[in-house]
Amino acid sequence: MRRFAKGLVALAAVAGSGCAADVRPSLSPSAELADPVRYACNDGSFLSVRFQGDAADVTMVDGEKARLSRLRATSGVRYAADGYDLWSQGDTATWTAKGSPATACLAT
After folding, report:
1. DSSP notation for 13-35
2. What whole-number distance in Å separates Cα of residue 87 and Cα of residue 68?
3. Is residue 23 part of a domain?
4. How far apart are the C-alpha atoms of 81 and 12, rounded to whole Å?
5. Which value, in Å, is the radius of gyration of the alpha carbons in the chain?
6. What is the CATH number of the domain that holds 95?
7. 43-64: string of b/e by CB count within 10 Å (b at 16+)?
8. What are the residue boundaries of the C-type lysozyme inhibitor domain, all occurrences included (predicted)?
9. How many Cα atoms within 13 Å fall on the side-chain side of residue 57?
10. If pLDDT is split at 50, 70 and 90, which confidence band does 32 have?
11. Model-level pTM?
């Protein structure tokens, strides 16, 4: 009986290995790169922001880039890091760059 059980286990292992599919991780829609959102701000500046889960990659009009981390917000979505702060809600956002006053922005 033991020999039969061992043979059955071996047969199941061989049969199961032939059934293994090519499993590759696929990106869920939320993990894919989103198109950047472009903002025109009241101070004359422009931003391009790519939102990716808990991060926002900001490219400023002068080409400077900043990666911001998502923070807890009472309303809307807020990202900040290294003196930069982006607080967005719908098509509007408030942008604060290092040492500059906050400015209102609108998605274009």
Report:
1. HHHHHHT---------TTTSPPP
2. 11
3. no
4. 54
5. 25
6. 2.40.128.200
7. eebebebebeeeebbbbeeeee
8. 39-100
9. 8
10. low
11. 0.67
- Quote the domain boundaries for residue 90: 36-108
The tokens for 95 are 């942008």
Instruction: Tell whether 83 is covered by a domain.
Output: yes
Q: Is residue 26 part of a domain?
A: no
Instruction: Say if residue 18's pLDDT is above 80.
Output: no
Residue 92 has pLDDT above 90, yes or no: yes
**Which residue(s) pair with 66 in the sheet?**
58
Q: What share of the chain is helix, strand, coil (3-state, %, to 5)?
A: 15, 45, 40
Q: Residue 8: inside a domain, yes or no?
A: no
* CA dist., res. 83 & res. 70, Å (int): 14
